[in-house]
Amino acid sequence: MTEEYTAPMLHPKLALALVATLMVQTITALLWAGAASERLGQLERRADIIGELIERTARLEAQGKYMRETLERIERKIDENAP
C-alpha cells in the first residue's frame, strides 16, 4: 500500500487570475516608478534654476554694496571740497 502524493492543482481560471493580477500590479508599479522619476527630475531642474538665481542675487548684492561704498566715498570727497 503505497500512496503517492499529488500536489493540489489550481483551477485554470484561478491560475489565470493570479497571473493577470501580478501583471497588472507590475505594470502599475512600473508606471508609478516612471512618474516618480519624472517628478524627481523636475524638482532637480527647479533646484538647479533656483541655485543659479541665488548665485545671481548674491552677486547683485555684492555689486550693490560696492556701488554704495563707492558713492559714499564720492559724496565724502565732494563734501570735503565744498566751500
Topology, please?
Layout: H1 12-81
Describe what this molecule looks like in 3D.
By secondary structure, the protein is mostly helical. The chain has a domain at 36-83. Helices cover 84% and strands 0% of the residues. The protein is rod-shaped. The mean pLDDT is 91.
Question: What attributes does this structure have?
Answer:
83 residues; mainly alpha; 0% strand
Oligomeric status: single chain
Beta-strand level of the residues, as a percent range? under 5%
**Which runs of at least 5 residues are low in confidence (pLDDT < 50)?**
none
Describe the sheet with the most strands.
Answer: none
Brief synopsis:
This protein is mainly α. It has one helix spanning 12-81.
